[in-house]
Amino acid sequence: MARMLEKYQKEIVPKMKERFGYTNPYEIPKLKKITLNMGVGAAIENKNRIEHAMKDLATIAGQQPVVRKSRKAVAGFKLRENLAIGCMVTLRGKRMYEFLDRIISVVLPRIKDFRGMPKKSFDGRGNYSFGIHEQITFPEINLDQVEFTQGMDVTLTISGNDDEASAELLTLFGFPFRLAK
User: Fold this and answer.
1) Which of 18, 36, 46, 59 is least enclosed by beta carbons within 10 angstroms?
2) CA-based nearest residue to 113, from 178, 36, 171, 174
């Protein structure tokens, strides 16, 4: 069993019940999925960028990413319809909890000048999104094989509609939020 899933079931659920007074176990916020997205706008000029981004995202996530294509043409960006401009992966279950564990314990501490994640990044429905500037912060990525540095967006989708309860859930997981001034 994934370490974070075990922590959720044994430690976090009782603390959330106590803090928010949940009576039904299905009321307790739960991590539903983690979505990783790499927007590769530079793939318009260089087709290799999307292939490298897909390879890196597959290495990071442990599953094959899906290519995202443009929906409409925008002449100002030299963008044509149906052009590959990004890739994404949705993690659920055991892989999701293992990825959360790696993000909290390995990746975020490796970011240079890291002072914590902002609490303002909740969307009003309890979901949390943040960006990682370079894929090389992940230990799985071999620096010698990186041709292009590429950032990514990470979205944690949490059941429930409350930002406060979702923030408490992530805090109990050990998510490093920035201290309020």
Assistant:
1) 18
2) 178
**Secondary structure (3-state) at 122:** strand
Domain 3-18+36-172 bears CATH identifier 3.40.50.720: no
Side chain identity at residue 59, one-letter code: T
Q: Give residue 36's pLDDT.
A: 93
Long-range contacts of 49-55 (CB under 8 A, 24+ apart): 49/148, 49/150, 50/84, 50/85, 50/86, 50/87, 52/146, 52/147, 52/148, 52/150, 53/86, 53/87, 53/148, 53/150, 54/87
Q: How far apart are CA 112 and CA 66, in angstroms?
A: 30
Instruction: Name the residue ranges covered by the structural domains of the chain.
Output: 3-18+36-172
Alpha carbon distance 150, 97 (integer Å): 24
Decide if 94 contacts 5 (C-beta within 8 A).
Answer: yes
Can you give the pTM of this predicted structure? 0.87
What confidence tens digit (pLDDT) does each residue in 61-79 have?
Answer: 999 998 877 666 665 655 5
Per-residue tokens: 172: 């109990």
Q: What angle do CA 102, 148, 81 make, to 5 degrees?
A: 100
